[in-house]
Design a protein that fits this description.
This protein has 285 residues and is α+β, with helices and mostly antiparallel strands. The chain has 4 helices and 14 strands. A hairpin with a 2-residue loop joins strand 2 and strand 3. Helix 1 runs antiparallel to helix 3 and helix 2 crosses helix 3. The radius of gyration is 28 Å and the shape is elongated. The termini are far apart.
């Protein structure tokens, strides 16, 4: 699980496109650029980090889940060991680089609509008291749709889950931080920076059953732990966790300065005008 985003975020001068009233939609990718009438958007960078909720940590411990990385995302994990040598998670988070931003521009306001990230995390189980057998689930390449409040992800899982591209994995309740930006006036090269936080990640019952429970081969005990994670009345309504994203992008106005003629050019223009005048005078005579 990772965010690999998306902070969502916004950061971005998005589609600084025409100065018309009609909104134009474009997608800026990391390492690329978008050029529209008057603007070039580039140097997109940042990351999105999903911090697992305390209830999700508890569910992972109950099913003895092992976590792994899907590059280029990175995991940050702290663990403890009890008196009988059992290793348990205390905290876990997955951070992934921002891969893309999609947004619209109406000539004055830039509105971020989607944020994509790259990489993710894997979960692996073995047969124990909380599972019915071995299981595996990979969640990567998150894309956060700010319009529908939906987090999509590439899924790969065992036990018949298979591979699913951009599956609607979670919905979220709240987002804080800016998602719209005013174009500077006068227009100058500007670094847009934003930090957003998404809270209240929840899945549908079908997703719980057909993705998490099935892929990880969760039994009655394991499923009960995950069901508690997905209950908005428990754990302070945190659901699966919190996503924090930080993004920057540079918007550069495409100003073309008219060329100033060289002195020699002015001289030639003067001679030409004199010649035209002489010809006109001769015809008049």
């Amino acid at each position: 699980m990772n965010f690999a985003s998306k902070s969502l975020i916004a950061a971005a001068a998005f589609v600084a496109a025409t100065g018309s009233a009609q909104a134009i939609t474009n997608t800026l990718t990391a390492g690329g650029s978008v050029t529209d009438a008057g603007w070039t958007l580039d140097q997109l960078q940042g990351s999105g980090t999903l911090s697992f909720s305390s209830l999700l940590i508890s569910a992972l411990n109950t099913a003895a889940v092992s976590l792994g990385e899907v590059s280029p995302a990175t995991l940050s994990i702290t663990t403890s060991t009890n008196s009988v040598g059992t290793r348990r998670f205390v905290s876990a988070s997955a951070a992934a680089p921002i891969a893309s931003l999609t947004g619209s521009f109406d000539g004055e306001i830039l509105t971020v609509e989607k944020v994509g990230t790259s990489g993710g995390a894997t979960q692996t189980t073995i047969k124990n008291s909380a599972t019915t057998g071995p299981g595996f689930l990979s969640i990567s390449n998150l894309n956060v749709d700010l319009t529908t409040k939906t987090v999509f992800a590439d899924i790969e899982g065992a036990n018949g889950v298979g591979k699913i591209s951009q599956y609607a994995l979670w919905s979220y309740n709240n987002i804080t931080g800016p998602t719209t930006f005013a174009v500077p006036d006068p227009a100058v090269q500007t670094v847009f920076t934003s930090e957003n936080t998404i809270t209240g990640l929840f899945a549908s019952q079908a997703t719980i059953d057909n993705i998490f429970v099935k892929g990880l081969a969760l039994g009655t005990v394991g499923k009960a732990g995950l069901t508690a994670v997905n209950d908005p009345t428990k754990g302070g309504g945190a659901g699966f966790g919190t996503i924090v994203s930080k993004i920057t992008v540079i918007a550069t106005p495409n100003v073309v300065t008219p060329a100033i003629p060289e002195p020699s050019t002015y001289a030639l223009m003067g001679l030409g005008l004199v010649g035209i005048g002489l010809v006109a005078r001769r015809r008049a005579n």
